[in-house]
Specification:
By secondary structure, this protein is an alpha/beta fold. Helices cover 26% and strands 19% of the residues.
């Protein structure tokens, strides 16, 4: 197997966002990285500085573009934009989301909670997978024999990993292994995914209430 047959695509979640109101910002514009989020982006850029990154692409949302910027700068390349990497659509966008004082306290919203397997409150999981796999394939093709970074959002990243690992797409959101500024790394031989790894280069920067929810670092390989 030659080096040109191996391509790695790192699917990265953006860093922490400045959101003092605690709303579900979803696809809304003008939600930018916090100071901590910028430190997370810089940390991952340092982590990847010695890697063979030849392509950086991000969701069009501000927080993803800002996360990608220091990684691209470290390699002297531009940040490309791919609409397919965008956050999942959600009916509760722009609202606080809680049982006592958020969107769930309004009976008119309960109809959106009827089917967690689809899910009924937003973009179907399988539609997220289709667009994300298309974005990964495009990044793979752009970085053949090298490495690419795609900056996206937690839910699309997680369901894409579940699909690639032949797991069900519906899940408990509390059990996602996809922390802020994490890397879910897909290794391709040619066009085939042969392993998926997960790492958290900015783990020590995560807020304390998040670090207890993370699983161990993993790397899953696939047989022929």
């Amino acid at each position: 197997m030659s080096k040109s047959d191996i391509t790695v695509v790192h699917l990265m979640r953006h860093g922490e966002v400045h959101n003092p109101e605690g709303i579900l910002y979803g696809r809304l514009p003008d939600y930018h990285l916090s100071e901590l989020g910028r430190k997370m982006a810089d940390r991952v850029a340092d982590h990847l500085a010695g890697r063979d990154i030849t392509h950086v692409v991000a969701s069009p949302l501000d927080r993803a573009q800002e996360t990608a910027a220091p990684i691209a700068a470290a390699h002297g390349i531009p940040v490309e934009k791919d609409e397919r990497l965008i956050e999942a659509a959600n009916i509760f966008e722009g609202k606080t989301f809680g049982v006592g004082d958020g969107a769930l306290s309004n009976p008119s919203h309960w109809k959106y909670l009827t089917n967690p397997f689809k899910p009924s409150w937003g973009e179907p999981y399988i539609e997220q997978v289709v667009r994300m796999m298309g974005a990964l394939g495009a990044a793979r093709d752009a970085a053949r024999g090298h490495e690419a970074v795609c900056v996206s959002h937690q839910l699309p990243i997680w369901v894409t990993r579940c699909f690639a690992e032949h797991r069900r797409l519906w899940h408990d959101p509390r059990r996602r292994q996809c922390s802020l500024a994490s890397l879910t790394s897909f290794t391709y031989e040619g066009d085939k995914i042969v392993s998926i790894g997960y790492s958290e280069p900015a783990r020590d920067l995560l807020p304390a209430h998040l670090t207890g929810k993370k699983g161990p670092l993993t790397n899953k390989s696939f047989g022929a």
